[in-house]
Write a structure and sequence with these properties.
Layout: E1 5-6, E2 17-18, E3 38-43, E4 51-54, H1 55-59, E5 63-68, E6 76-77, E7 81-87, H2 88-94, E8 103-108, E9 113-117, H3 118-121, E10 127-132, E11 135-136, E12 146-148, E13 161-167
The structure holds the ligand Nc1nc2c(c(=O)[nH]1)N[C@H]1C(S)=C(S)[C@@H](COP(=O)(O)O)O[C@H]1N2 and molybdenum atom (MO).
The site of the ligand Nc1nc2c(c(=O)[nH]1)N[C@H]1C(S)=C(S)[C@@H](COP(=O)(O)O)O[C@H]1N2 has 16 residues, from loops.
Length: 196
């Protein structure tokens, strides 16, 4: 196992205050069968095809741990959490995007979705996480897998992620269509689309 990597924003970023971690989301928690769970990668792929990655395909990738807080755009942050999983950049390499596909829609079971830039998705600290603090995620925490992008606000990381779709242009996810920021970088306090 690779050593724990330490993310560098343990001091609270601008405009955030710490709260204990209490998972929140829209709708009911889906009860998913990990044996049948898979991540589908499609849209503007390099080879024009669609790839379905099952649990075993992901297990073949290097396991990493990244310590990071979850920063909700509504100004609360969790204490630092130790996320375990595989790097999103390794997942992307298994099913790479076409040349001009710079945006990725991340969709969860039950309708939630978020759009991120490809650059943010392949950030070295970006994970497809299956574990937190040494234990498998609970259903409320996003089991079987959630996207963790420590440098972006929490809404960019779907729990129960099931689909990754490459696009030429930014797409509107759940929060983006309600006025939240298309990029959502924590360090720049990119909270609302109308800021810039
Ligand atoms: N599927 C799904 N993923 C989601 C959400 C959601 O409602 N549904 N909420 C997002 C938001 S706004 C935040 S801040 C984090 C919260 O993660 P937590 O519930 O583990 O605290 O999950 C994100 N991922
Ligand atoms: Mo949030």
């Amino acid at each position: 196992m690779t050593p724990v990597e330490t993310f560098h924003d343990h001091p609270l970023p601008p405009g955030q205050r710490e709260r204990p971690w209490r998972p929140v989301h829209y709708g009911r928690v889906p009860r998913l069968d990990v044996q049948r769970w898979s991540l589908t990668v499609g849209g503007e792929t390099r080879d024009g095809g669609m790839t379905v990655l099952d649990r075993l395909a992901l297990h073949a990738l290097p396991w990493v741990e990244v310590e990071a807080r979850l920063h909700c755009v509504a100004r609360t942050s969790t204490p630092p959490l130790r996320w375990g999983g595989v790097r999103m950049r390794d997942v992307v390499e298994l099913a790479p995007p076409g040349e001009d596909a710079g945006h990725v829609l991340l969709a969860a079971a039950r309708g939630y979705a978020a759009c991120v830039t490809l650059a943010d998705l392949v950030h070295p600290d970006s994970l497809l996480a299956t574990h937190v603090d040494g234990r498998p995620l609970t259903p409320e925490q996003g089991w079987p897998a959630r996207v963790v992008l420590p440098h972006l606000y929490g809404f960019k990381g779907p729990k129960w992620v099931a689909e990754l779709t490459y696009h030429h242009r930014p797409q509107q996810g759940w929060w983006e269509s309600r006025g939240y920021h298309p990029r959502a970088r924590v360090a720049h306090e990119e909270r609302f689309a109308h800021q810039d």
